[in-house]
Amino acid sequence: MAARTRKSASKKADEHALLGSIPAPAPAKFSKDEELKAYRDMLLIRRFEEKAGQLYGMGQIGGFCHLYIGQEAVVTGIQMNMEDGDQMITAYRDHGHMLAMGMESRGVMAELTGRIDGYSRGKGGSMHMFSREKNFYGGHGIVGAQVSLGTGLAFANKYRDNGNVSVSFCGDGAANQGQVYESFNMAALWKLPAIYVIENNRYAMGTSTKRHAAQLDFSMRGVSFGIPGIQVDGMDVRAVKSASEYALDHCKKGDGPIILEMMTYRYRGHSMSDPAKYRTKDEVQKMRSEQDPIEQVKQRILGEKMASEDDLKVIDKEIREIVVDAADFAQNSPEPDASELYTDILL
Amino acid sequence: MPIDILMPALSPTMEEGNLAKWTVKEGDKVGPGDVIAEIETDKATMEVEAVDEGTIGKIVVEEGTENVKVNAVIAVLLEEGESADDIGSEKSSPKEEPSEAKAEKSGDESKSASAPAEPIAVDVASDPDIPEGTKMVSTTVRVALRDAMAEEMRANDDVFVMGEEVAEYQGAYKVTQGLLDEFGARRVVDTPITEHGFAGVGVGAAMTGLRPIVEFMTFNFAMQAIDQIINSAAKTLYMSGGQMGAPMVFRGPNGAAARVAAQHSQCYAAWYSHVPGLKVVMPYTAADAKGLLKAAIRDPNPVIFLENEVLYGQSFDVPDMDDFVLPIGKARIHKSGSDCTVVSFGIGMSYAIKAVDALAEQGIDCELIDLRTIRPMDMPAILESVKKTGRLVTVEEGFPQSSVGDFIANKVQREAFDYLDAPVISICGKDVPMPYAANLEKLALPNVDEVIDAVKAVTYAG
């Protein structure tokens, strides 16, 4: 990723702010607890997604299912800085975001299987899940719509003067939708406490950034609105954490919105039925072997002797148990009663 | 215990596929994410990855096998410390469970053919009694709408209004006049010309519990925002299992004004009335505009509030009461009668009233119902009236195909067929984009004579 963080750290942030881009802050120095938390949180997402893929293969999960494998560091690093009341919203590659926000793996998995104990009582599915309690505002199936909605969350924070920040995630593909720029304009105009996280995983469905984007540097997408942007190594959870710390601080100071472009990568296809023929196996393998976000943390933990292989195996086992339990729960929870068909349409 | 590796479903519709190739052999060690096989679906060749760590103990389905059912056991994985001897003989035959699961599934599908009956709409309260001696004040629709917003904004700090020109300009049609002065820029928010974006911002704010009033300069422009209105505002309550919705109002002028031609002259009543999760209100009088807008702002659901530019300047009596709120979902009998039921709403009422008055002079006594709310629709009021008169004519400005009138006609023929003495006629705008030329525009809109002729036709009055 070093090659892509081309910003000169020597220039002052203010000068860059005018151009819409500022240098990425140095990766945070993690304590042992932080490293272990990051390891555990990312591993939970990875194992959960693998299990979801397996259940999909068994026909237990239907429809569309978009896995987050490879991108775990992004949501994990950002969530580490979020405070009570800060909101999160994203599109349909959303399972990892929900787990990061503290939603129960049982409830998420049961929604994937379309059961009554799912977060949406089985009526939303993989792409449409919410938790008022955990400040997770979805889970949206229309590419880009969540960015305007997330801007509305920020609007509400400013309206209530509650000091909270909304974090809206979108992909490099969604970053081409018109309403994203309509939202940028309003957020900058009204100085809304909004963080826009563009998860650049290099492919908008099956179309590479080179083929879909005239401006490949997505941190520059706010330039014409004066919104600063930071390009971040989204495979390094420490880099994500320090960038989001900066961004949250920026918003909480009342300086308006900010864009974080996360350079990341998804290992799986766009959805379960995507054979991903638009990229080479070598490309995927290279990312997996050289930049895997979980492996990076693992190597640091072992290298700095923060924990032993055996300690990590204990964590692995715990995570595996959580996921197996979630899968069992999700397969044994009943389908929603037929009477649910007509509930929750109007209050 | 050895783990079965099953033939995976690799698309929402896949039932079987070809096992094109094994990329591992018995005895190979695999870990999560390792590619173990290639499978051909009807769409593509997909790689299958191992989910668990272990050793391939047995390959059950040889490569090259075609039409392997989803969920059949294709291989067996041994975990640490297990050997091929641990593979039970019963394991090597394709598992029966999946087909049972399939059967169960299809059983469910046949069950779903008998969906539960749609719940009967809850009783909506009648209009509040207006105390005797209440002063009636002649008020324009424009001022009635403004008063409704101002009263609700005074009562609840969560209510705010946003839209183009709503604040400093005092409203493109002066409906928000004076609100900025009273409530300030925090609560009366001028937006850029960016319907899609600010509709989404409004929905997002509503999801947190605020009560936005989103003004569209006209509902023609709301076409740019219709995704947020339908996919976000209307569906979120359902998709979240009741956890969060969008308590808000989308309001503004709808339908034809005068000489503004095709892109500025369309009625969206039928469009929005199609969508579960929305309420759709379209008042005619100033009193209804005021009482229903107050109700819409208080309603915990997204409400589409369709106004009309032509009506803004018209005056009607509005009761001078502290808190005049009307029920959403209740029609108003504008005039009772016995010969024919005429149902209309919004600007359609202006044609219907003139027609009904003219018909009365000719001895035909119509019952005129002002729907006021298109969704949920007060079908009981319509049915009760049709059962009395045996005849029905509907009047609206929208396009004829899939019109509100056609929906009503269908309901009535299903639920009051034996009471009908004549076919139902729905009077609509013509099936053309609105023309600019004055004479053509007039022809494109419904007119009083068409309504009179329709009533005469269904009453066989020649």
UniProtKB/TrEMBL annotation, chain A:
Function: The pyruvate dehydrogenase complex catalyzes the overall conversion of pyruvate to acetyl-CoA and CO(2). It contains multiple copies of three enzymatic components: pyruvate dehydrogenase (E1), dihydrolipoamide acetyltransferase (E2) and lipoamide dehydrogenase (E3).
InterPro entries with a match to the protein in the record: DH_E1, PDH_E1_Alpha_Subunit, Pyrv_DH_E1_asu_subgrp-y, THDP-binding
Broadest EC class assigned to this enzyme: oxidoreductase
Record-annotated Dehydrogenase E1 component domain positions: 41-338
One of the GO BP terms on file: pyruvate decarboxylation to acetyl-CoA
SUPFAM superfamilies linked: Thiamin diphosphate-binding fold (THDP-binding) (SSF52518)
Reactions it catalyzes: N(6)-[(R)-lipoyl]-L-lysyl-[protein] + pyruvate + H(+) = N(6)-[(R)-S(8)-acetyldihydrolipoyl]-L-lysyl-[protein] + CO2
Top-level taxonomy: Bacteria, Pseudomonadati, Pseudomonadota, Alphaproteobacteria, Hyphomicrobiales
Protein name (database record): Pyruvate dehydrogenase E1 component subunit alpha
Record's keyword terms, sorted: Oxidoreductase, Pyruvate, Thiamine pyrophosphate
Top-level taxon in the UniProt lineage: Bacteria
One Pfam family in the UniProt entry: E1_dh
Cofactor(s) of this protein: thiamine diphosphate
Molecular function, one GO term: pyruvate dehydrogenase (acetyl-transferring) activity
EC number: 1.2.4.1
Description of how the protein assembles with itself and partners: Heterodimer of an alpha and a beta chain.
UniProtKB/TrEMBL annotation, chain B:
Cofactor(s) required, per the database record: (R)-lipoate; thiamine diphosphate
Listed Basic and acidic residues bias regions: 88-111
Keyword Oxidoreductase: yes
First and last residue of the signal peptide: none
Boundaries of every Lipoyl-binding domain copy: 2-78
Catalytic reaction list: N(6)-[(R)-lipoyl]-L-lysyl-[protein] + pyruvate + H(+) = N(6)-[(R)-S(8)-acetyldihydrolipoyl]-L-lysyl-[protein] + CO2
Biological processes annotated in GO: pyruvate decarboxylation to acetyl-CoA
Quaternary structure and partners: Heterodimer of an alpha and a beta chain.
InterPro entries xref list: 2-oxoA_DH_lipoyl-BS, Biotin_lipoyl, PDHB_mito-type, Single_hybrid_motif, THDP-binding, Transketo_C/PFOR_II, Transketolase-like_Pyr-bd, Transketolase_C
E.C. numbers: 1.2.4.1
CDD domains documented for this protein: lipoyl_domain (cd06849), TPP_PYR_E1-PDHc-beta_like (cd07036)
Database matches in Pfam families: Biotin_lipoyl, Transket_pyr, Transketolase_C
Top-level taxonomic group: Bacteria
Protein name listed in UniProt: Pyruvate dehydrogenase E1 component subunit beta
